[in-house]
Specification:
Helix content is 28%, strand content 23%. The chain has 2 helices and 4 strands, in the order αββββα. Strands 1-2-3-4 form a 4-stranded antiparallel sheet, covered by helices on one side. The longest helix is centred in the N-terminal third of the chain and has 17 residues. The model has no long low-confidence stretch (mean pLDDT 86). It is of the alpha+beta class.
Length: 103
């Protein structure tokens, strides 16, 4: 009699993406002055980070992700397609310069 097959535990869908965005969200919280949340509309696929300024201006950005074809790593991307810095703290500072520019 053959041994029963053991079920292999599958990672949650988009676990890598949620972890990556979570690191960026933590870095934004350390900088402060943002309203940010990971969003994933039902049936829409890859999660993204919605970031808005905490002030009255209401500036906001959706930070999307892309996979690097060469090594499969994740990169955060501005709405206009440009990559953010790979370090979460540097990315949070870059987001701050765009969303809450000093006047």
């Amino acid at each position: 009699m053959d041994a029963p097959e053991q079920a292999t535990e599958q990672p949650a869908p988009y676990a890598d993406e949620r972890s990556f965005l979570g690191s960026l969200l933590e870095a934004l919280e350390k900088v402060g002055g943002f309203n940010a949340a990971i969003r994933q509309p039902y049936g829409m696929g890859t999660p993204y980070l919605r970031v808005q300024g905490g002030g009255t201006m209401g500036n906001g950005e959706d930070i999307r992700l892309r996979r690097v074809a060469k090594d499969g790593s994740l990169r955060a991307v501005w709405q206009w397609g440009e990559d953010l810095p790979t370090d979460p703290a540097e990315a949070a500072e870059a987001i701050g310069r765009v969303i809450n520019p000093e006047m």
